[in-house]
Amino acid sequence: MNVRAVTNEFAKMRHLRVGLVAVVMVLAVLGLSLYTVVSSPTFSPDAPSAWNGLLAGMSLGIPLISPLLLAVLASRQTDIEHQGNGWLLQATSGLAPGGMCRAKFTALGLVVAASTIGTSLLVIMVGKLLVGIVPPVSLAHWVGFTGCMLVVNLAVLAGHILLSAKVDNQLVALGIGILGTILAVFSQGLPAVAAHATPWGYYALAMAADYQGSDFVALPLPYPSIAALAVVAGVLFTIITYRFDHQEA
């Protein structure tokens, strides 16, 4: 990993309001998680399934918010190279386009990881202190859900970095982000086989809880599918970025 290139990407973030986008992502998911339990007529902070209500809210909020904002993050971080001819400038200093994409993914990936984990911790804190949920948190299920959503977020981020690097018109990338949001939400009503067809479908596969009957219930997490997504996305990102290295900037 080119540490200097990653450091340069963090320096660029100061002018791109990446932190603001990440904060909006966290607060939007938190708001939707709280709305789910507040709007439920059967929710009780004393019920054994109380934490499932917040997990169901996060399972809905992340697919609604993350696809588009991840597209925005990748687009802003990459479009600066198109506008300032950064690909050529960095190539003359020895950093090929593929290396820049890997540096961008590393830098943005750390931001996305911090926001995803931070959202999960914040929802727990708010659920305990503000909502007043009494039963203990099911940490194993909560950590598993957070890990699954992190993998999906990183896979989608990687795809958008490649798309934004390849296509000069960033409206295309943002349009794909909107389409990803639609696919992420509607995949919740599709068979599991269909949800596996796109990266955004994995948001639906990784739902941790849902409203069934008159109560929130925990759902099993698809660890094998998420692991397969991580491997496939990682291999494809590596192959494509190394192909970028052998193309003209």
Automatic annotation (TrEMBL):
Residue intervals passing through the bilayer: 20-38, 50-73, 105-127, 139-159, 171-190, 223-244
Coiled coil residues, start to end = none
**Pfam families named in the record:** ABC2_membrane_4
This protein's UniProt keywords: Membrane, Transmembrane, Transmembrane helix
Protein name listed in UniProt: ABC transporter permease
